[in-house]
Amino acid sequence: MDQNDDDGGRLAGRFGPSPPVGGARRREPVFNLPAFVWVLAGLIVAIHVAGVVLATPSVDRWVLILFSFIPARYGGLAAELPVPAAALWSPLTYSLLHADWAHLAMNLMWLVAFASPVARRLGAARAGAIALLASLGGALAHWLAYPGELVPMVGASAVVAGFMGAAARFAFVGGPGPGLNVDGPALPLLASFANPRFLAFVLVWLALNYLFGTGVVAIAGEGVAVAWQAHVGGFAAGLVAFSLFDRR
Q: How far apart, in whole angstroms, are the C-alpha atoms of residue 130 and residue 108?
């Protein structure tokens, strides 16, 4: 039995207005990431794929010589290493290399989580500057811990830690709740250490890095040592450098 217009009006009033004719509900993308994060993650993945495809013992050796961070380059053993000029760029390029797929996947997961809010707040150029400084900070901390070490260091962990440090400057402002305060105010550096949530995050993060880095707690699937000092250096760089780039 057909319903007349009067009945239709009563039904509409009972169940709420119908969506506009011809309109469509806006759908959010599944991976709503800033372009900066897509580009950085894509670059890291592309480099790893190229390394896997071209892998030979000779290629692997030269990739490490040219692009990994080797602390001994900056000490008395520097003369024993080929390509001395690599000392200029390796404090940055080591962050683009990874030991294996598990290492890469772990870093990408945390990169997406922490680089995204920082990129949304600062924009691509300033987020990129944070990444560069975090890479340098991680290399410096690793060199201070192992000044004559010949074992190469690779991985984006220091850069990820830098984004964690930068995000911590604004994520804990305001009351607990969803969201990371991307558009809100940030605390000054020293005032951050009076914030209980910030302090708790930093202390737990440092403790976990120490436990995993020293082998007290094993990481499933990890076949390489964790350069936890580089993580701390990257975190400190992001934490401090945030003040240079935040304009809110």
A: 17
Give Cα 97 to chain centroid, integer Å.
Answer: 14
Distance CA 221, CA 135 (A): 24
Task: Supply 219's token pair.
Answer: 């990481």
For residue 102 the two structure tokens come to 């598990």
Q: Detail the DSSP E strand segments found in 112-198.
A: none
Q: Is residue 10 included in any domain, yes or no? A: no
125 assigned to some structural domain? yes
User: Using N-to-C axis directions, what is the helix angle for 35-53 and 57-67, rounded to 10°?
Assistant: 140
What predicted TM-score, i.e. pTM, was given to this entire model? 0.83
Give per-residue pLDDT as tens, 157-216.
999 999 999 999 999 987 655 567 888 889 899 999 999 999 999 999 999 988 887 765
Q: Is residue 17 part of a domain?
A: no
